[in-house]
Design brief:
Blueprint lengths: L19 H16 L4 H23 L14 E2 L2 E2 L17
Length: 99
Amino acid sequence: MGVLKRKEEPTQTITLRVPASVKAEIDRLRESTSEAGFDLNATICESITRLTRQMRDEIDGLNGKTAGRDRSRKPATTNGLAHSDRKLPASAPDGQGGV
């Protein structure tokens, strides 16, 4: 195992609007995780990164885009279930019927 570490990608700031109760909970979590020696910002950043990739994969799947992408990646999943490219009938119970 090498000793050298790669430089991390530069970071930028984003602004998100969330309900006040969520903001308050994040503030409480920031205090308690800091006291416990954890980095809440790194955890949230990692979660946003995973969510961004998942959304991109889902949108690409809806648009039929796979060219130029690494096909060896696992399929996008939600709640542990792989996304399907099938269209739902217009009468689908979730109201998301396709054409």
